Amino acid sequence: MNRRDLLTGFLAGGAFTAANGYLWQKAADSFSPDTSNDPLVNAEPASDRETVFPLSEDTSLDSGALADGKIEDLLPESKLAPGAVPQVAKAEHYLDKVRNFESEFVDDIHLNELETRTMHSVLLRLKGVERSVGHGNYNLISFDRALKFAKRFKQVGAFTREELDFLEKIFFTEASAYGFLGDKVITELTAEINPSDTVKIPYSGHYVYRGEAENYYNKLKSDVGSIILTSGIRSNVKQMHLFLAKCVQSNGNLSKASRSLAPPGHSYHGIGDFDVGKIGWGSANFTDQFSESDEFKRMQDLGYVQIRYTADNRFGVRYEPWHIKVV
Ligand SMILES: [Zn+2]
Description:
This protein is mainly α. It has one domain (4-324): Muramoyl-pentapeptide Carboxypeptidase, domain 2, CATH 3.30.1380.10. It contains 13 helices and seven strands. The chain has helices at residues 6-13, 15-31, 39-42, 71-74, 94-99, 113-133, 135-138, 143-152, 161-172, 212-224, 236-249, 254-260, 294-302; strands at 4-5, 109-110, 198-201, 206-209, 227-231, 274-278, 323-324. The longest helix is centred in the middle third of the chain and has 21 residues, at 113-133. The N and C termini lie far apart (42 Å). Residues 1-68 and 76-87 have low confidence and may be disordered. It binds zinc ion (ZN).
């Protein structure tokens, strides 16, 4: 089977470089990453390094990968692409994909091998930034600041031109090209979140926007009881991180990743939505199990709670009973 290359269709149109290239061009120039001596760019393909990201169901953003070494020591070798992609029948109807979001379909769009390698190095660098700024702050950080932090902390290191191009490509690629059908709600890659517009929810490590979202959360918490904010505001950086982590799990399958996580720029977490879970449930809150909880049933009975991604949503996304539609 021929795997479809994201670049093939996208760059052919020229929209990426013509319309959007200047944004990162500007950012990259101002940080002037010198890649001539960068081992990430110049390294020989390693033949026997361990894969840093074994495919697993673990969706936690463990940033411990940098604990004992630099990013270049942790890069996986170049043979990242799977030898064979499982053959799954073509979905004639998009709801088949929504309902079988963890399956692979023959018309899914994959990153190519080079892009997959860049994805790994970008994700490692983002993890380094997260460690540097802390998990809470990372929810709000802009790309401009993330780039500065990466450059400032030697162990993280400046993003290379190749990595910046990759980030830009992911952000500006038309997500519908790989099956995500939701709106783009943040169009600027370098969008900033003003901290004074946000409020941190105690014991959650997450933020919501002051005003409507804050009031909504407080009312919901008061009405339902034993729930907690499990994810609030997400900057473009945070959403990019989550999306790329999902892409790694999906072995570079962008379509599959986007069935369970909105691509950066497309997440309503950026403009007001938030996730809630049952206190003490941990990662089970992000599974269908949450819809069986008393807390979810209580939310439904309230009458005012709307779920962003329903079981038959038109966005190409899995059912997310935990994701509250605010805006
Ligand atoms: Zn959510």
